[in-house]
Automatic annotation (TrEMBL):
Key words, A-Z: 2Fe-2S, Iron, Iron-sulfur, Metal-binding, Oxidoreductase
UniProt-recorded Gene Ontology molecular function terms: 2 iron, 2 sulfur cluster binding; metal ion binding; oxidoreductase activity
Name this protein carries in UniProt: (2Fe-2S)-binding protein
InterPro entries the record matches: 2Fe-2S-bd, 2Fe-2S-bd_dom_sf, 2Fe-2S_ferredoxin-like_sf, 2Fe-2S_ferredoxin-type, 2Fe2S_fd_BS, Beta-grasp_dom_sf, Diverse_Oxidoreductases
Keyword Nucleotidyltransferase in record: no
Pfam families: Fer2, Fer2_2
Keyword Glycoprotein: no
Organism this protein belongs to: Mariniplasma anaerobium
Length: 157
């Protein structure tokens, strides 16, 4: 057991756990945060995506030790922002969600992309979302939603 300190969704956290634990398990089992999901367990699908110091990471492949001193934002933390609402509205408007399994990870990926590039091209959006798999929408509506959010959320990112 090791003492690990980090910031989670704006709050300071101090845990005494096995540093080799997967961060996804810590989020779900110790904090009850169910937005990040177990999809593939290999960092391929993006369902477990979170922001680590503003950059997207797959929490299923992230050892707890790697978050020491870092700032983590999950979809639950992101929902408290105006940027989330702009993106959620665009996803609804463009029909960018069906079953919802991929939606939290897609939104985290979109937030990471828009933070780095507030006016991405369609190709840049596709690249930014490429680490996330969707089995329902075929991606076009999700890409369109991110484009819509970047336009309607002008000044938020």
């Amino acid at each position: 057991m090791t003492n690990i300190k980090f910031k989670l969704n704006g709050k300071d956290v101090d845990l005494n756990l096995d540093p080799s634990m997967r961060f996804l398990d810590v989020l779900r089992n110790h904090f009850g945060l169910t937005g990040p999901k177990e999809g593939c367990g290999e960092g391929e699908c993006g369902a477990c995506a979170v922001l680590l110091d503003g950059h997207i990471v797959h929490s299923c492949c992230l050892p707890l030790a790697n978050v020491e001193g870092k700032e983590i934002v999950t979809i639950e933390g992101f929902t408290k922002t105006k940027r989330y609402q702009a993106l959620a509205d665009a996803i609804l408007e463009e029909g960018g969600s069906q079953c919802g399994i991929c939606t939290p990870g897609m939104m985290i990926a979109a937030e990471s992309l828009l933070n780095q590039n507030p006016k991405p091209s369609e190709d840049e959006i596709r690249i930014g979302l490429s680490g996330n798999l969707c089995r329902c929408t075929g991606y076009n509506m999700i890409v369109k939603a991110v484009k819509t959010a970047s336009k309607k959320g002008d000044g938020l990112w």
